[in-house]
């Protein structure tokens, strides 16, 4: 074998060794997790058995399931309402901050538009008066 091929084989052997070690580590972690899960499952089974033994209400689990199913099946009326909140129930400070800042902004915009409109009317009337005065002079 050539030197290049032996180097490649050594690299492959090293990669395989690393992979085998990683698989062994993962297998150990899997075994540890499975034992922990089995312990948890055993604890849950013990708790369930204790609950069954201490059932003081006299209701079997099947009856309890049927009762919960009946409660879930009951329809609840949906009420749709539209409200104008002048006095909010929650976050009044934030509500008024948003509402009044918008109202002030809209008020300023309306005032500006109104003044621009009045100025434009006055300007056009002045132009018409100037034109009429020039026509009468001629």
Question: In brief, what are we looking at here?
Answer:
By secondary structure, this protein is an all-alpha fold. It contains three helices and no strands.
In words, what does this structure look like?
This protein is an all-alpha fold and 138 residues long. Helices cover 80% and strands 0% of the residues. It contains three helices and no strands. It has helices spanning 3-53, 61-73, 92-137. It is flat and about 110 Å long.
Keywords:
138 residues, mainly alpha, 3 helices, 80% helix
The description of the largest β-sheet is: none
Give the integer mean of the pLDDT values: 85
The radius of gyration is 42 Å
Give the beta-strand count.
Answer: 0
Structural class: mainly alpha
Q: What best-fitting shape do the alpha-carbon axes yield?
A: flat
Contiguous uncertain segments of 5+ residues: none
Strand content: under 5%
Number of helices: 3
Q: Alpha-carbon distance between the termini? A: 117 Å
What sequence of helices (H) and strands (E) makes up the elements? HHH
Approximately how much helix is present in the residues? over 70%
């Amino acid at each position: 074998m050539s030197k290049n091929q032996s180097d490649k084989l050594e690299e492959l052997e090293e990669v395989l060794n690393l992979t085998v070690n990683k698989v062994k580590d993962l297998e150990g972690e899997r075994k540890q997790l499975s034992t922990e899960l089995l312990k948890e499952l055993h604890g849950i089974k013990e708790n369930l058995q204790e609950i069954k033994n201490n059932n003081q209400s006299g209701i079997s689990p099947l009856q309890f399931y049927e009762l919960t199913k009946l409660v879930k099946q009951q329809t609840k009326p949906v009420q749709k309402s539209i409200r104008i909140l002048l006095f909010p129930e929650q976050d009044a400070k934030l509500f008024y901050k948003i509402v009044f800042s918008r109202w002030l902004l809209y008020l300023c915009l309306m005032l500006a538009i109104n003044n621009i409109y009045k100025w434009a009317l006055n300007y056009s009337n002045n132009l018409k008066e100037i034109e009429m005065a020039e026509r009468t002079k001629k």
